[in-house]
């Protein structure tokens, strides 16, 4: 039996590679003869860079940049010399996981560090850029990235705006004369894990602002600020991108990537599966196991388990999801190719306890799953 193991990371608990190893361990306890193919994945959020590096053999580089709050950090990115391709994961520089809960500040968090990573890629001679958008601590619609790349964002007094999305309410003039000219020769693909627009009730601020520390009043303030930014950008570029699916990804970074980098916004899981040649790995598989921290109705917008399930369904291979939690409307995933889905915890427990035991739970659920499959097969073969 060939089993393709293709999970995403389990937020705050396990990297995708560690999750895949734990699942394989459980499978081998029940079926030592099983052929386990490990394919850790990502859909644009934290951990996607690691999946890309593992799949492509790209060089891992480190660059000193600013985190979302302006503090110096070492951020990783990937480099393929032969094709002059750079892999930049926004979460490395501007990610939420690097901040304590009491540090989350959606009003002033900035994507400046992500712009610094893009500049490092340009310095290396990049001709192609795969920019993964997800796991951000920011809600500045990519304004910080633009500042790092040479753009000037000014208020009515000609003063440079401070970092963060809230400051965009004061944006009066956007000057692009000093924007890095090398961007014109850069082919950009942006991996997004959501299809939200920039503004409104499904926009970056309303849907994702609260998890970045914004209360209801601050969400409204941020949405209005990003609307002002979008209006100024449309006036300069003569194009509207605010309603583009994925424009709201990573606190509006999808909007800036499309408007200023000319990025092709695509579901991150599709881009990553292309890079790892998922179709070839799928051939001959009897079962696919995937998963991440939570499976719910929003997973259909571009999350890893549903992206994997859709590919498995097309190949007529059953697909099982092992999720940390089954959230609201998770059953909709059945219509997308998920054969069955299981939550990991084996009883009531607090979140911290569940996170520390994630590898144990994954192995146990995988073992139980394979034992059940073997039982069903035995029944079918019995007279």
TrEMBL record:
The organism's place on the tree of life at top rank: Bacteria
Keywords of this entry: Kinase, Transferase
Gene Ontology BP terms: organic acid phosphorylation
One Pfam family this sequence matches: Gly_kinase
GO MF annotations, alphabetized: glycerate kinase activity
Family: Belongs to the glycerate kinase type-1 family.
Protein name: Glycerate kinase
Lineage, top ranks: Bacteria, Pseudomonadati, Pseudomonadota, Gammaproteobacteria, Oceanospirillales
């Amino acid at each position: 039996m060939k089993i393709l193991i293709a999970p995403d990371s389990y937020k705050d608990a396990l990297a995708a590679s560690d999750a895949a190893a734990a699942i394989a361990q459980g499978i081998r306890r029940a079926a030592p003869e099983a052929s386990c193919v490990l394919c850790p994945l990502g859909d644009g959020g934290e951990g996607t860079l690691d999946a890309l590096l593992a799949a492509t053999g790209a060089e891992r580089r480190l660059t000193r940049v600013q985190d979302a709050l302006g503090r110096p950090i070492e951020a990783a990115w990937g480099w393929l010399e032969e094709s002059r391709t750079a892999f930049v994961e926004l979460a490395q520089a501007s990610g939420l996981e690097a901040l304590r809960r009491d540090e989350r500040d959606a009003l002033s968090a900035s994507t400046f560090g992500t712009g610094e990573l893009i500049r490092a890629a340009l310095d290396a001679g990049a001709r192609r850029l795969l920019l993964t958008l997800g796991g951000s601590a920011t809600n500045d619609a990519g304004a910080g990235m633009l500042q790092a790349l040479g753009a000037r964002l000014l208020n009515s007094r000609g003063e440079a705006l401070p970092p963060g999305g809230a400051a965009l309410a004061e944006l009066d003039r956007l000057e692009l004369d000093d924007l890095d000219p090398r961007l014109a020769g850069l082919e950009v693909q942006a991996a997004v894990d959501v299809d939200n627009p920039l503004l409104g009730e499904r926009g970056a601020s309303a849907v994702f602002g609260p998890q970045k520390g914004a209360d209801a009043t601050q969400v409204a303030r941020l949405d209005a600020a990003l609307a002002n930014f979008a209006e100024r950008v449309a006036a300069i570029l003569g194009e509207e991108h605010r309603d583009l699916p994925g424009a709201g990804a990573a606190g509006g970074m999808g909007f800036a990537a499309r408007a200023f980098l000319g990025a092709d916004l695509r579901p991150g899981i599709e881009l990553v599966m292309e890079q790892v040649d998922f179709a070839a790995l799928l051939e001959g598989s009897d079962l696919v196991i995937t998963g991440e921290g939570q499976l719910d109705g929003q997973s259909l917008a571009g999350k890893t388990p549903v992206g994997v399930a859709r590919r498995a369904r097309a190949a007529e291979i059953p697909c099982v999801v092992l999720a940390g939690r089954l959230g609201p409307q998770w059953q909709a995933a059945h219509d997308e190719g998920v054969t069955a889905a299981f939550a990991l915890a084996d009883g009531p427990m607090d979140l911290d306890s569940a996170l520390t035991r994630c590898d144990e739970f994954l192995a146990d659920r995988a073992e139980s799953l394979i034992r059940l499959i073997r039982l069903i097969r035995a029944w079918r073969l019995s007279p």
